[in-house]
Design goal:
single chain, mainly beta
C-alpha cells in the first residue's frame, strides 16, 4: 500500500553511472517498490498554481516510508508510532488505546477546525494525529486530570483586586406592541401560545472549557429566576451565593426617545444620544446595519429586517438586559451563550409583536475575567479622579486631582511606550505617548472590594493644554471617555501601569464590526493620503501570514497580528466615539475569506462620474477588497463601529454621515516583568495530583483549590 511519505531522502546514483540525474528522469520503473517509477533526486511535482517543483518531498511511497511491505500478504508492517493500511498516520499516544479513554484521536486538520474553525491544509493534514481531550483532562495522551482553579491569596493586598467576569445577557425584540409595558412577561411567546412568555437558557463554560446548559428561563424573568437557573447547574459549577445580577427593562424604546433606566452611559456624554455606546442606539441602528454579525453596511433597507421600519427615528426595541457578575468562578472563562432553541429546531423564544424579530446578545464592558494580570505594577503614591472636558468640540476624559509630585511619579511609572528607550524624555525617563504607541493603564477604585477588577484606559500626555488642578503644564488625556460606572463619580482611582506596549498595527487598515459581535473586519479604503506610493494596493490584511501573493503588505504594517495575540480597537482622531470601557480581546482566528461587499456597495461609488481620476485605479483594485479579512475574538465587542469615509487626495467623496470615525487595531505586547498569573490550578499554592485531579496544598493553605490561608493548615 502507498501513502504520502512521512520522510524522504534522495535515492542517489541508482544506475551507478556516476551522475545524480535530475528529478524528471525516471531511472527505475515496473518494480514492486516503485510501480510508478522513481528518480535519483526528489521527484518533480507541481503546486496548486501548476508551477514545477524540482525539490519536492512527501511523494507517494510504499508504506509511506514508515513500514515494510510483507510480500506474501501485500500488507504493510508499520514501525512503532505509525498505523494505517499504508502506515500513513502518525499514531496518537497510547495507540491502539489512544488518548487514555479521555479524548478523541483526530487529524491535525480536524483539530484546527475544532479550534474556532481554523484551517490547516498542508501536506500532513490527514497524516499528523493528535488527541482532543475531554474537558478536565490534558496532556499529549489526555491522561492528566486538571485540578480546581483559584485566586492566589498572595496576589491580594491593600489595593490589588480580582477581575471577575461580568457579562450582559440581552433578550430583545423588535416591533410595536399592544401589551402593557409594565408586564415583563408579555413581550415573548413560545411560538404557539400567546399566553406563554417563551423560554431561553444560558450555556455556561467553566475553567476547563466544559459547557453546562441551564434549565429553561422564562422570557422577562426576574434576576432571582436567572440566578436560580445558574445555581441549579450540577456539580456546583456556580457556587451558591456567588452571583450578582441586575436587570434593565427596555420597553418600547426608540432611538430618539431615551429614558434614564435604559441608558448604560450618562447623558452628559459629548455626543449625547448619538454616541454608539447608548444601548438602544447600538441595538436599533448598529444592529440593523450589521445583520448576522457581517460587519457594518450602508444599506439602510436592512433596518426593516430588525425594526419593521426604514425610518431610524422610529426603530423600536423592547426586552430585557441582565448584567451578571460571576464572583465564584475566577479567571478567564469562555463567554457564555444564550440558547433559544430548547425544543429541537423550533425556537422557544419568539417575539410577541407582529413581524417582530428576537435579538439575543452577550457581551462584557471591560470586565472579562483573566488568569494573568498584565498590569501588575502599582504606581505607589499616585491617585487620581476622572473629569470630563467641557466646552465645544471634541471632549475627552482626563486624569484629575493629582498634585505636581503625583504627576511626576506617574510619568516615571508609565516609562517607555515605543520599544525604544533611547528617545525617552527628561529625568523621568518616559514617553508622552502617541498615536503609534499610546500608554495603557488599569484604573482601580481606591476604596473598593476585592472583586472590583478595575478598568483599562488608554492615555497620552497633552502638553498643549492644562485641564487638571495642578500648575504643571500638560494633561493626561484618556482616549476612551471613561466615566465611573455608578454614582460615585468623585472617587479616587489607583493607577496600575505595565512595561508592556500598546502598538498600532497599521493606520491603513480600519476596523468595522457590529455590536456584540465576535467578528472584526479589517479593510483599507484610503488612497495615498499618507504620502506613500502604492497604498491603494493594500487590502487591510493585518495577519502575520505572508506568502508570495501578499508579501507587499509588510510595507503597510507596523505590527502584524497573530492567533492568540491580545489587542483592542481605538479611534485616535475622535476619542469621543470610543467606548467608555475598553475590552482586551484575544485573536482566536485570523482569516481571509470571500469578500462580503465591494467599495461601491459601501460608499455608492463607481469609477467615473464625480470620482476623481486619481482614485479610479484604487476603486478598481478595491472592488474585491472590502470586508475580506476578519478576526474572530474570544469575547464580543461592546459597541459598533463603521469605517471612515472613502478618502482620496481630493478629500471625502461620500456623504455617508455614519462613516466618519476611523477605528484601528492596537496590539498589546505583554511584558513578563509586569505580568502575574494569579488565577491558576491550586491557586499557585499547591501541587496538582494529575492522576486524581486533587490539589496537594502547601503548608499554611487549605481548601479544595488551596485559595485559603490558615495558620492551622500545617
Amino acid at each position: 500500500m502507498f501513502g504520502l511519505a512521512h520522510v524522504d531522502t534522495p535515492k542517489g546514483d541508482l544506475d551507478m553511472n556516476g551522475v545524480i540525474q535530475p528529478p524528471n528522469n525516471v531511472i527505475i520503473d515496473n518494480s514492486y517498490a516503485y510501480p510508478f517509477g522513481t528518480t535519483e533526486q526528489f521527484p518533480q511535482m507541481q503546486d496548486s498554481d501548476l508551477q514545477d517543483l524540482t525539490n519536492s518531498a512527501h511523494y507517494y511511497m510504499e508504506c509511506s516510508n514508515k513500514g515494510k511491505c510483507d510480500r506474501t500478504t501485500g500488507e504493510c508492517q508499520c514501525y512503532d508510532g505509525y498505523d494505517g493500511v499504508a502506515c500513513q498516520r502518525a499514531s496518537c499516544p497510547g495507540y491502539p488505546n489512544s488518548c487514555s479513554g479521555h479524548g478523541v484521536c483526530k487529524t491535525i486538520e480536524q483539530l484546527a477546525a475544532a479550534d474556532n474553525g481554523n484551517v490547516y491544509k498542508l501536506w500532513d493534514r490527514q497524516t499528523t494525529m493528535g488527541c482532543q481531550c475531554d474537558s478536565g483532562y490534558s496532556g499529549a495522551d489526555c491522561s492528566q486530570r486538571e485540578c480546581k482553579y483559584g485566586v492566589d491569596p498572595l496576589y491580594l493586598d491593600d489595593v490589588s483586586t480580582v477581575k471577575a467576569s461580568i457579562y450582559d445577557f440581552a433578550t430583545l425584540t423588535t416591533g410595536l406592541y399592544t401589551v402593557d409595558p409594565a408586564a415583563d412577561d408579555e413581550y415573548f411567546t413560545n411560538g404557539e401560545q400567546q399566553i406563554s412568555n417563551g423560554n431561553w437558557a444560558i450555556r455556561f463554560f467553566d475553567n476547563h472549557g466544559e459547557d453546562w446548559v441551564t434549565d429553561p428561563i422564562p422570557g422577562g424573568a426576574t434576576c432571582d429566576e436567572v440566578e436560580t437557573a445558574l445555581y441549579n447547574l450540577p456539580n456546583k459549577v456556580i457556587p451558591s451565593a456567588s452571583l450578582s445580577c441586575t436587570k434593565v427593562s427596555v420597553l418600547e424604546s426608540i432611538e430618539n426617545e431615551f429614558s434614564e433606566d435604559v441608558r448604560t452611559y450618562d447623558s452628559d456624554h459629548p455626543l449625547g444620544s448619538s454616541h454608539p455606546y447608548q444601548i438602544i442606539y447600538r441595538m436599533a441602528l448598529w444592529e440593523a446595519k450589521t445583520p448576522n454579525n457581517e460587519g457594518e453596511l450602508s444599506d439602510s433597507s436592512a433596518l426593516q429586517v430588525y425594526t419593521g421600519s426604514n425610518d431610524t427615528s422610529t426603530s423600536v426595541i423592547s426586552g430585557f438586559i441582565y448584567r451578571v457578575k460571576f464572583l465564584g468562578n475566577p479567571g478567564k472563562i469562555r463567554s457564555p451563550e444564550i440558547e433559544v432553541h430548547l425544543d429541537g429546531k423550533r425556537p422557544s423564544l419568539v417575539s410577541a409583536a407582529t413581524s417582530g424579530k428576537v435579538i439575543t446578545k452577550v457581551w462584557t464592558d471591560g470586565q472579562q475575567g483573566e488568569d494573568v494580570d498584565h498590569f501588575a505594577d502599582h504606581c505607589d503614591g499616585v491617585t487620581a479622579t476622572i473629569s470630563r472636558e467641557v466646552g465645544t468640540g471634541i471632549k475627552t476624559s482626563f486624569l484629575n486631582g493629582m498634585t505636581t509630585t503625583e504627576k511626576n511619579l506617574l510619568k516615571k511609572c508609565l516609562g517607555d511606550s515605543d520599544f525604544d528607550d533611547t528617545n525617552n524624555q527628561d529625568v523621568y525617563n518616559w514617553d508622552k505617548g502617541s498615536k503609534m504607541y499610546p500608554h495603557i493603564i488599569k484604573l482601580v477604585r481606591t476604596v473598593t472590594t476585592q472583586y472590583d477588577g478595575g478598568y483599562f484606559a488608554v492615555l497620552w500626555y497633552d502638553t498643549s493644554v492644562q485641564l487638571d488642578q495642578t500648575t504643571t503644564e500638560g494633561t493626561f488625556r484618556l482616549l476612551n471617555p471613561f466615566n465611573p460606572p455608578d454614582t460615585f463619580k468623585t472617587d479616587n482611582y489607583d493607577i496600575y501601569t505595565t512595561k508592556g506596549t500598546l502598538a498600532l498595527t497599521t493606520d491603513q487598515a480600519e476596523a468595522t464590526f457590529g455590536f456584540a459581535s465576535k467578528y472584526i473586519y479589517t479593510t483599507n479604503i484610503t488612497y495615498d493620503i499618507y504620502g506613500r506610493n502604492g497604498t491603494d494596493d493594500y487590502d487591510g490584511d493585518i495577519s502575520c501570514e505572508v506568502g508570495n501573493n501578499n508579501a507587499a503588505k509588510l510595507d503597510s504594517l507596523y505590527h502584524c497580528l497573530n492567533k492568540t495575540d491580545l489587542f483592542t480597537v481605538i479611534n485616535w482622531e475622535l476619542p469621543s466615539f470610543n467606548p467608555p470601557y475598553i475590552n482586551m480581546y484575544t485573536a482566536e482566528r485570523i482569516y481571509t475569506g470571500n469578500y462580503k461587499h465591494s467599495v461601491s456597495d459601501r460608499f455608492g461609488l463607481t469609477p467615473g462620474g464625480d470620482v476623481p481620476e486619481e482614485t479610479q485605479r484604487s476603486l478598481e483594485l478595491k472592488e474585491l477588497h472590502y470586508q475580506t479579512h476578519f478576526i474572530n475574538t474570544d469575547i464580543a465587542t461592546n459597541w459598533g463601529a463603521s469605517v471612515g469615509n472613502f478618502k482620496t487626495t481630493a478629500g471625502y467623496t461620500t456623504n455617508n454621515d455614519m462613516g466618519k470615525p476611523q477605528f484601528h487595531i492596537y496590539k498589546f505586547f505583554p511584558a513578563v516583568a509586569s505580568s502575574y498569573e494569579y488565577v491558576a490550578p491550586c491557586s499557585n499554592r499547591g501541587i496538582c495530583d494529575q492522576d486524581a485531579g486533587v490539589c496537594d496544598c502547601f503548608p499554611g493553605y487549605t481548601n479544595d483549590n488551596c485559595d485559603t490561608q490558615s495558620s492551622l493548615a500545617v
